[in-house]
Design a protein that fits this description.
Layout lengths: L2 E5 L2 E4 L4 E8 L6 E8 L6 E6 L6 E3 L7 E6 L4 E6 L8 E9 L15 E2 L3 E6 L1
Parallel strand pairs: 2-11
Antiparallel strand pairs: 1-3, 3-8, 4-5, 4-9, 5-6, 7-8, 9-10, 9-11
Amino acid sequence: QVQLVESGGGLMQAGGSLTLSCVFSGGTFSLYNMAWFRQAPGKEREFVASIKNSGTTTYYEDSVMGRSTISRDDAKNAVYLQMNTLIPEDTAVYYCAARPSWIDENPYTTADENDFWGQGTQVTVSS
């Protein structure tokens, strides 16, 4: 069974940067598309960024595009999300997700029943 463990959250200052990490186990990492989602208090979970198993294609939600980078290291079975110029609206629980690449060829921008999830890591951005 695929397991995902996120780390790197915490209390951040507006304008600062962070890097979230997610370690994958229980499967062949290179066969999975990976994504980050987030859920702010009182809001639904939303897509943040994703990267295909090849590592060559990435997608970003509009509000983080240009100040965020998703990357993966297949040697470490890990995916990362670097976010710069943090704003209070980035405050949320950030979740790592994995989807088998052979199931869905569409851009990984929405969650579905094929996804595996981590437990989440809290990011709080103070102004």
